[in-house]
Amino acid sequence: MGVGRAEVEKALSKPSPFGLDVDVLKYVVEEPSVEELKALELEEPVRSASTRLGFNGVKPSYVQVDQTALYKLLERRLRGYGVIVAPLRTALEKMDYAKRIAWRLVDPRSDKYTALAYLRGGELGYFIYVPPNVKVDVPIYTCLVLRLERRAQLAHNIVYVDEGSEAHVITGCAVPHGVRDGLHVGISEFHVSRGARLTFSMIHAWSQGVHVRPRTAVYVEEGGEYVGYYITYNPVQSIQAYPVVRLQARARAYSASVVVGLGSGDYDVGTKVILEGPGASGEIVSRTLGLEESRVTARAEIVGKARDSRGHIECLGLLVSEKSSIAAYPLIRSEDPGSTLSHEAAIGRISREELEYLMSRGFEEDEAKSIIVRGFMKVDVPGLPEVVRRHVDSIVGTISKLAVG
Amino acid sequence: MLSLESVSVCVDGRFIVRDVSLSVGSGELHVIMGPNGAGKSTLLAAIMGLSHAKVCGGRILFNGVDITHLPSYERAKLGISLAHQVTPAFRGVRFLEVAKAVATRFNSDWRALASLLMIENLLSRDLFSGFSGGERKRAELYLALLQDPKVALLDEPDSGVDIDTLRVLARLIDYTVFVRGTSAILVTHSGFILERLSRVTRAHIMVGGTVVYSGDPALVIPVILKYGYMRGLEVLRGGGG
Asked: Does residue B70 belong to the interface with chain A, where contact is any CB pair within 8 Å?
């Protein structure tokens, strides 16, 4: 994108406007490498991380362990659709168009995290291309694992869904049990072409001591649709993410974030949708749970810049622990009289009345709490494929039991 | 099936219900009528075991077992269910999630009953959040019956609902009692639903925390609906009209 390296170097000391400031230079970034992923090759720590993501039995098309990209030659079904999945590093070497779209949606000078990924990441991460007019009904799984202590894992992911196509990408990011210090930065640039549809689910399973800085930007062309689902349900030192989705004429976006705050973690998670074209519509839904001593911030912003555009924000928080805190910042801004925007936000606790009501329906107190927590986290995301829905439901079921002890 | 033996109920240390005795047999539908504040809802709350309504005299037997001090969830598991008059709004919790949890616990079919009560369109919404009066009553009866109860306690199912909803509720209560053989105690102050129920076993009038009159519903209900509680009771006792 024609950015001088010196300018990006300068951004290495530029903090993000949101979230805790992390000293990124104290983490070791290993030399990037790319290897072919063979079946049964995954070592125990990686298998352990996959289990924490609920990825048992899943065959990811791309795995990144620290700074090693392991990619698999595509299984027959994906190949049949003409889908390309490759480490971005490889794609940039071999495919001109990959080069043309890299760093187009995310500016590496945005903050120290984008700068670090740009300068030191070696362009590891996945590149997924879906050719025009195909509906890929098999979800494309990718998995990023941070395995070693005091390391930074830097990933740059690009998904390009060409005109009239449909794809479902599921990315799990995790550490195996026992990792206590680390930094994960994931740059994601998604391009949804005219009339195309992308659902992207991100599942996080980190641990105390790990800082996480996803940087995601999505561009949806005319009549396209983007559905984003994010869930984090393990302790973390800090996570800060504020993906931006830009919608052109009649494009639609739905974004759901489920944040389960645990430990003493600092969670600052949001989504911004910009309605740039006439008839564009966006909805942002967030559910935050404050457990233990966590601090959770839910942000959401919709900017209406075009006529006949619509946007709605719903931020709900459930404060379970008295030592936890939740803040919600829903923001709507209209720059066109023809844009209709609304929001609602509420933070509450599990009320005695709700518990008593459910107990009268045959549930003991803990079971009643669990039903409320489970129901609260279960967002009905339109268009999520059944396999992903089941995956998410099973995670939510596990957490709701843990949440009430 | 369900017997109340001289039951008194206290709320915050005050007697709200005094010395009520009542016996409901299998497949029977009893109606308790009475003005606002008579203690009808408190009596049902005590039978269900809700924490605010403490039994401070007498005992409650269910199939011969003393359940006076059982927690509400145990009573529910035994086969007692309550359609609450007042329901909490569950913010962020979809109706369907609660329905599925209840159906799983009681091994019942959430789809079939949803269709009978015409509440399918409500299932994707947050439970009781922004529901209209009629929607709330249908949803509440739905959850109560989803427990497949042996005894259903129906607290004012007819207050604040339109005629169409009244018809749906009455039809389902009829079906539950006479086809499924569920026993029921239905509490009403308005009596709107009574004309639409095909058969009521016994009618009780409750005033000031006690049952002051019990009798044949064919006799009691028309008199109360015509004259109201005070004058109606005089008519019933005096045998005149």
From this structure: no
**Contact present, A240 and A186 (Cβ < 8 Å):** no
Q: Which of A239, A260, A314 is nearest to A283 (CA)?
A: A314
Q: Could you tell me the maximum CA-CA distance found in chain B, to the nearest angstrom? A: 56
Predicted confidence band of residue A247 (pLDDT cuts 50, 70, 90): very high
Handedness of CA B67, B68, B74, B76 (dihedral sign): positive
Mean of pLDDT values over B11-37: 95
Nearest to B147 among A351, A361, A372 (CB): A361
pLDDT at A105 over 60: yes
Say if A62 is an interface residue toward chain B (CB within 8 Å): no
Place of tokens 């004429």: A249
pLDDT tens track for A159-209: 999 999 999 999 998 888 778 899 999 999 999 999 999 999 999 988 889
Cα separation of A116 and B159, whole Å?
Answer: 65
* CA geometry: angle B147, B38, B166, nearest 5 deg: 50
- Considering CB atoms only, which of A346, A348, A362 is closest to B76? A362
Amino acid type, B142: Y
Distance from C-alpha of A131 to C-alpha of A83, rounded to nearest angstrom: 6
Q: How many CB pairs under 8 A join A and B?
A: 69
Nearest CA in chain A to B101: A371
Task: Identify the band that residue A55 occupies on the pLDDT scale cut at 50, 70 and 90.
Answer: confident
Query: How deeply is A335 buried, as exposed, middle or buried, from its count of CB atoms within 10 A (0-12, 13-18, 19+)?
Result: exposed
CA distance A151 to A24: 10
Distances (CA, A) of A8 to A2, A26, A109: 11, 18, 5
Separation of alpha carbons A162 and A85, rounded Å: 14
Q: Is the dihedral of CA A176, A177, A183, A186 positive or negative?
A: positive
Highest mean pLDDT among A136-140, A141-145, A282-286, A392-396: A282-286
Q: What is the pLDDT of residue A41?
A: 61
Mean pLDDT of B211-225: 94
More confident residue, B82 or B238: B82
3-state secondary structure B93-106: CEHHHHHHHHHHHH
| Whole-number Å distance between alpha carbons of B36 and B40 | 8
Q: A17, exposed or middle or buried, with CB in 10 Å at 0-12, 13-18, 19+?
A: exposed
Residue B102 in contact with partner chain A when CB distance is under 8 A: yes
Segment B27-33 shows an average pLDDT of 96
DSSP letters for B42-65 = HHHHHHHT-TTSEEEEEEEEETTE
CA distance B203 to B186: 10
CA A65 to each of CA A127, B68, B178: distance values in angstroms, whole numbers, following the listed order: 16, 61, 65
**In this structure, are residues A203 and A231 in contact, taking their beta carbons and an 8 Å threshold?**
yes
Pick left, alpha or beta for residue B73 (phi over 0 → left; psi -120 to 50 → alpha; otherwise beta): alpha
Amino acid at A206: W
* pLDDT score for B241: 47
Q: What is d(CA A238, CA A69) in angstroms, rounded to the nearest whole number? A: 25
Q: Name the nearest CA neighbour of B106 among B63, B145, B139, B136.
A: B145
Collapse the DSSP code of B77 into the 3-class scheme (helix H, G, I; strand E, B; otherwise coil) and give the result: helix
Tokens of A224: 């396209």
The DSSP secondary-structure symbol of B86 reads S
Helix (H, G, I), strand (E, B) or coil at A392: helix
B87 interfaces chain A, CB cutoff of 8 Å: yes
**Tokens standing for residue A233:** 């349900």
For residue A134, the distance in angstroms to the closest alpha carbon of chain B comes to 31
Q: In this predicted structure, what is the pLDDT of residue B153?
A: 98
